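Dear colleague,

Thank you for sharing your sequence with our group. We've completed the structure prediction you requested, and as agreed, I am returning the results in plain text so they can be pasted directly into your records. Please verify that the sequence below matches your submission; if there's any discrepancy, let me know and we will rerun it promptly.
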Amino acid sequence: MHDINKSITHAHLDRIDPEGNLFGLDRWSPHVAQRHAAGMGLELTDEHWAVIYCLRNRYREKGSARSARELMRELEQAFAEDGGRRFLYGLFPRGPILQASRIAGVPVPPGTLDLSFGSVH
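Please find the predicted structure tokens below.
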């Protein structure tokens, strides 16, 4: 349930739902992404931005991923030359699917919170 007092006191909270996802994709900007990442303890590098924009472009072209497994496979292929899964977890230690999707402002696919599919939450 939405707490209006928190929204008034903490205006930034109206941008995310209780799970940490943006309410609307139109609310995303690089500035919002940086703030969201900072809240997760991440400082975004060019490598992070490459993954973030890859996710945003994938969402724009194909829509939501059917599963975390599908999206992880696509990311591993896209970043195979950089080290694949190991590279992605190095950038997003809490799980490349969960953290990167939230920072990129795209819907987190089903199965993401399953520990074997891109989240170590």
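Summary note from our side: Residues 11-104 form one domain.

Kind regards,
the structure core
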